[in-house]
């Protein structure tokens, strides 16, 4: 498996961490040196943690890794819509996608089978949580206060940010038992909890900046 291959951001854990090989490097000579994306080791429904344990693919670790991967993909989609509208906060989304690789690395390294060297390479700090809080506070200052339930809406940037928020909450739910059992860093759970608040706030901010209306909940008569 390519899980051990370090990428621009992160040590491993998410399938998105696979290094990308440009097609034009697939000459016959180089073909021998370039590792294949399919090792076939997962074909029987088992895969490896970063610590080398073999576990069934439905293990809660792979469930959480898959959800984190989906979250990064959802953010990637939202980011594209935000770029189209010229929003400048997309650099924050870039950083968050990198941090999600680190989240994956930490989840993929269950402490019970981790050696000191694994722990060092996959530790997760509190700094990204503080960054999210700073960003949330600065957007909140510009937003009108919430007086109603708002519904996922407000244009494509905003609606896809809401979608990313809901995937984030699923990732959080799947990480909770792993953190509770002491297998992953508590800061990972905190980060995901703060990230859904960030995505909510950012969805409202994007909608406001684009001059779109947020749908509000109205009780049907
Ligand atoms: N279905 C999955 N959902 C979430 N995480 C997975 C899944 N399959 C594998 N992983 C994790 O992602 C890493 C990279 O995925 P990869 O597809 O290389 O694993 P594999 O299926 O074991 O190998 P291969 O695809 O080469 O047969 C794995 O080492 C494992 O930690």
UniProtKB/TrEMBL annotation:
**What GO MF annotations does this protein's record show?**
ATP binding; corrinoid adenosyltransferase activity
Under the heading NCBIfam families, the entry gives:
PduO_Nterm
Lineage, highest ranks first: Eukaryota, Metazoa, Chordata, Craniata, Vertebrata
- Protein name per its UniProtKB record: Corrinoid adenosyltransferase MMAB
Family assignment? Answer: Belongs to the Cob(I)alamin adenosyltransferase family.
State the organism named in the record: Echeneis naucrates (Live sharksucker)
Please give the Pfam families that the UniProt record associates with this protein. Answer: Cob_adeno_trans
Function (record text):
Converts cob(I)alamin to adenosylcobalamin (adenosylcob(III)alamin), a coenzyme for methylmalonyl-CoA mutase, therefore participates in the final step of the vitamin B12 conversion. Generates adenosylcobalamin (AdoCbl) and directly delivers the cofactor to MUT in a transfer that is stimulated by ATP-binding to MMAB and gated by MMAA.
**Which BP terms does GO give this entry?**
cobalamin metabolic process
Subunit details:
Homotrimer.
Question: Where would I find the Cobalamin adenosyltransferase-like domain in this sequence?
Answer: 37-206
Q: Which reaction does it catalyse?
A: cob(I)alamin-[corrinoid adenosyltransferase] + ATP = apo-[corrinoid adenosyltransferase] + adenosylcob(III)alamin + triphosphate
**Alphabetical UniProt keywords:** ATP-binding, Nucleotide-binding, Transferase
* Origin: domain of life: Eukaryota
């Amino acid at each position: 498996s390519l899980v051990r291959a370090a990428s621009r951001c992160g040590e491993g854990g998410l399938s998105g961490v696979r290094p990308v090989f440009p097609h034009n490097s697939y000459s016959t000579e180089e073909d021998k040196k370039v590792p294949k994306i399919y090792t076939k080791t997962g074909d029987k429904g088992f895969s490896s943690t970063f610590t080398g344990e073999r576990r069934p693919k439905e293990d809660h670790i792979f469930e959480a890794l898959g959800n984190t991967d989906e979250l990064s993909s959802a953010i990637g989609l939202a980011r594209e819509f935000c770029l189209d509208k010229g929003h400048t906060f997309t650099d924050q989304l870039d950083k968050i996608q990198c941090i999600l690789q680190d989240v994956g690395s930490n989840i993929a390294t269950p402490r019970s089978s981790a050696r000191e060297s694994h722990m060092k390479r996959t530790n997760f700090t509190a700094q990204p949580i503080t960054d999210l809080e700073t960003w949330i506070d600065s957007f909140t200052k510009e937003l009108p206060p919430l007086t109603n339930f708002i519904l996922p809406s407000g244009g494509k940037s905003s609606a896809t940010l809401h979608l990313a928020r809901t995937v984030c909450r699923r990732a959080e739910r799947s990480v909770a038992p792993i953190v509770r059992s002491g297998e992953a860093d508590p800061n990972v759970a905190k980060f995901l909890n703060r990230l859904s608040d960030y995505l909510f706030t950012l969805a409202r901010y994007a909608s406001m900046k684009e001059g779109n209306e947020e749908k509000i909940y109205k009780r049907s008569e």
